[in-house]
Amino acid sequence: MTKKMNVILDDKIIAGIFALFPGKIYLVGGALRNFFLKKNIGDFDFAVGIPFAEVCNILDQKKVVYRIVSSEYGVVRVFVKNREFEITSFRIDTQTFGRSATCTFTPDIYQDAKRRDFTVNAIYMDGEGNFIDPYNGITDIKNKILKFIGDPLIRVSEDVLRILRYFRFLPYFPVIDKKSFDVCHNSIYLVETLSANRIRDELEKALDSSMCFEIIEYYYKYKVFKFVPDALENYKKLLKQEKIQGQTSWIRALFVLFKDYSFVGLKKEELKHLQNLKSAFAENLTPRVCWFYYGKNITYDLCLMQNKLDEFCQIDDVIFPVSFNEAEALLKKDLPKVIIRKYNSMKEKWIESDCMLNKKELLKILVEFSF
Question: Per the confidence metrics, is the pTM higher than 0.70?
């Protein structure tokens, strides 16, 4: 066990998870892959050589808060002091149907490893810091090579999403394994068979990655998705601006990369945001007018991408200063339809002024209108 590994094992909450199932539980997957890649560790996932029902019984006995994610796949999510951990019983995927599979429990860690996608994701560590590495994933990480476990063609046929996962991990492993690459490259046409929600999950991870540009370069080079012209150049500019501001947005990335978002399972508010942003650009709105029509968030994205954040920072709020009731009171001698026309014309004048005319100026314009 290395001193650096102590960073994980000295975490009292992690140690507590290991203590729930002494000698039967292992840290596995992305946490260990990222550890060896010297990347930040996000999620800690565990695998346990105990049947699912027994896992639940032990958690109940020890009064651990948990939620069943899937009894079929033997997965629970454990909650400890505002942190979450997934624990999955060892299993064999006897039949696979894309995202779904028919599973049976196994006490054998090597059988559990067989179902995983890449060698670098099939590294296990026990509570003492000892590794079980059935497919030499640690060596592959050191050699910067990404390989499927077993026959790449079979692994991709089991789940087409593995094509996207392959290209998402590839920038971290620049030494190409020809068999794995050729299968993914030649099977790209299958990506369109994936559901929009699955593509969304994978694309969001890619765009939130520290290697997001390199991942998108692979997607672009091998035509995984249909990008807009100059997508890479526009994305590079966006990332430069986001780096200055210290914040990223995968929704903004979608905007500069794609014209059509139907292949991504977006939420209603996300799709509306993209549509409004597209309209703001198409109408060539100034920051103040954009704020009036679409609000603060759309205006921020517009200004960020147009390098106009200095203008954004000068805007406090943009509210039309004259209510219809005020206009109606001032024009009480006019017919209702005339009042409406004058009010709308006054608002147009205000927008033409970049929303700068004040209330006094607008009321003067209102009374001077003749229809």
Answer: yes
